[in-house]
Batch of 2 targets.
Target 1
Amino acid sequence: MRKNAVGLALTFALVFIPWQSAWGQVSIGAHAAYMSEIGTGFTTETADGTMGVGGRIGVGVPVVGLKFLGTVNVFFPDCGVEDCDFYAGTLNMLYTIPVPMIIKPYFGAGVVVQKSGGATSLLGDLTDWGANLTAGFSLSSGGAFQPFFEVNYQLMTDFDDQLVLAAGLSISTW
């Protein structure tokens, strides 16, 4: 009986307690984004310098400085009277550099998927996969709200490679 109680306590300590800490590092946020160009599939005149909005959700791994971050962006290319759309989503693993300052720099990599469509898309609806390289920083004042700025370089197969800038606010949920 004593072995079962010790085993149950160890299982609880190894499984439940770290996840409680990880849930304390769950964050959600919103941001504005700027994409340098969309490239292949859109007419060049209408898609360079495209603004967008997005959302994000992240889960931190306690102690080691890792964070898994998913983002979704909707961009608004200037297509004149034509109907067009452009979406992007990323899934990244980030590492926060441990510095004892209010600025918390991070970097990482992941995957990106992009979708274009509408009348201005020369190739019709197109979905493309690629790699995403991220670097940025957040401002941590010890509260739940953390402003951030990041730079993403997206290496695509069908679309041109893109530089995406994002700035917004992340909120710790627990």
Target 2
Amino acid sequence: METRGLYVWTDSPDQHAFWKACGINLLQFCDLGWYRNSETVLDGYLESMAEQIRCAKADGFSVNVILYSNIRQWAGPEDFEPSGIGEKFYPRNDAEMNKRLFWLAKSIRTMREADGFTFFAGDPGGTSPEMGESDYTDWLRMSVLVGNLVKENAPGSYFNVNPWAINMWQNPTRPCQDVRWWVEETEVTRKIAVSDVVSENRFGIEIPSHTYYRAMALRLYEENKLEPDRFPGPQDIARIRAGGVPRVWAWPYFLLDEADDGDIGPDGAMREMVQSEIRYIYRFVRTANQIGFSGIIGNWSYLGHKAKALNTYAFGRFTADQDATPESVLKEFADNITCDGASSEAVILALKFIENNSNWQKKLPARYRLPDFEIRETDVNEVLSEIGKVKIASVPNTFALPESPEAYFRKLYDRLIWIKDRSLG
């Protein structure tokens, strides 16, 4: 895969070595200038973002910055917009639109050293019936205006669009717990991907690809006896490319963690316990390659990023090396944190056991689940007994990690105890 990205919100230079070991070559930040008081803290924030871009590029990464859509600029009195999601404005109000474009131009100009910018649709962003009539074409019109700002203020940067949550523009009263939301989201994403706006302006596009992996969407389709529309397929990407679109990337935001569907951890609470879903990551990345994506961006944004180090490593390895497999990646990772072969085998066993008991997997409808790893022990007490003999390295053996091997191992042990406690219940 040519472009192998992580959406990291802001930079974490202490993780650069790990991301490089994974094979990541692009970092995606997001511009949250709208959240800052324009009179007190905005300028300092933008300068900080510009410095983060320079730092990441100096360390060999390409940098992309997400720009949000119809969100008013916060002007106080507090330093930070209190709701955290911003106040939306009606996109057909020219005065409001011009104000937003003014502040976006300032952000783009300050961050002009970024390699590219991506214009986001919703969450936050979108409309409401109270504002007035609107649909997805209002977002497309705004994308042209923002694309022109990039040309004017960062002429060396490319411009992508990402129709994530575009249904917040098309059907803003529809909840995402309704399968129609996902049907409409996919239909509108298809229209955008093949639109004249995207092709004639030579925008790149990042496609969320929900129906290839996302439990929340797939479960709703299953419950309503509907077959999901797998968009994009290979013919779709061929058509998009034939229109002159220079970048077609996958953007599977929830592929690497258990945070989807209201969860922020394995049981809906924030718990930093080891995750493993590498068979599903492998399946998605292989599919993305087969259907013709030229890039893919995962995420690093939840507080449990240290606990999902294996998922991030596997994601990077699968995107960078088509010969990498779940088995080979598990061995690389376990060898990196242990002192001998027996310890590595025990850690591999524990990680396979955790993956076989993954909350991520359990939320998928049965027909989308992969066969479990074949393991010699299926009883959590036996697995706990085996890892009790493990010798953990004091520092990683071959590549950097987000935290020490001992800290990661403690999270692995905690996840096994969590599974044990629930099996007793």
